[in-house]
Amino acid sequence: MDLNYFYTFKEVAKWGSYTKTGEELGYAQSSVTTQIKKLEEHYHVKLFERIGRKMRLTQSGEELYYYVEKILSLLDEAEERISNESNLRGTLRIGTVESLAAYFITPYIKDLKEKHPELKILLESGLCPNLKEGILEGKFDMAILLDRYTEHPDFTTIPIRQEKLVMIAPPSHRLHSLKEMNLKELESETLILTEEGCSYRVLLEQLLKEENIQAKSVISFSSLEAIKQCVADDLGIAIMPEIAVRKDIESGKVVQIPFDHKKIPVYTQIVYQKKKWLTPPITQFISSLTQ
Q1: What is the residue range of 241's domain?
Q2: What letter would DSSP give residue 149?
Q3: Which DSSP string do the residues of 220-287 spell out, in sequence order?
Q4: 0.85 exceeded by the pTM?
Q5: CA 87 to CA 95: how far, in whole Å?
Q6: 109 and 21 co-located in one domain
Q7: Cα dihedral value 126, 132, 136, 140, nearest 10
Q8: Domain match, 22 and 38 both
Q9: pLDDT digit string (tens) for 188-247?
Q10: For residue 88, what is the DSSP state?
């Protein structure tokens, strides 16, 4: 059995398309089709069925996928264990939130990549609950979260630092002149928030609920840049990690208004499964982040 067939099988399951799989792996579509047929002949089952324009795993295909994931994971681990640590190979899968991906971790990834040019680094952003689920499912080797301190029986959590949250407004906003702000002031404001499920949005909403405060209206965006632009355009006020908005405050595009972020503590933190074997790339990356 050619192990490359397993990689092809996994990609077809991911993309639901022989054509897309061929594009991703650099194969002709006919080569992808041939490899899947050889797998089906070997196991004497049908692995995919066409649903509309997509190829979907059959029940037998789903069973094989479970074992293929384990096989390929072990192959990656073997390669990483025997690689020369002066030029590490293999794949490092990292999950993180948008603000940390954009404003924090890229220099550390660049440094690791420069030391080990053959190392493949896959970085995926998402919401903290989804990232934690991805760790449990083995989708990520590790995640770098911006959230309340993570406590879970299956996780190892390494806090890096507590992050400061700031509330921003357009330069001419009435709250800018205040030295202290009562949260009741938010009842007459439009809040521009990140998408539902974002850690600091959840914590802010919990705080407002505890204080029996309801904002005049809420606008939601998934993009931090869109939120900052909306604030600058005087559509409302927003709460964001300071690291994501520091340059905008310094340039005068937006202003910071009084807000006690200590009531919603969030930490930049590294999280991975307790049973996870820490490969040399993971160990080096964690060491770099925590120094």
Answers
A1: 163-261
A2: P
A3: EES-HHHHHHHHHTTS-BEEEEHHHHHHHHHHTSSEEE---GGGS-EEEEEEEETT----HHHHHHHH
A4: no
A5: 23
A6: no
A7: 40
A8: yes
A9: 999 999 988 899 899 999 999 999 999 899 999 989 999 999 999 999 999 999 999 999
A10: -
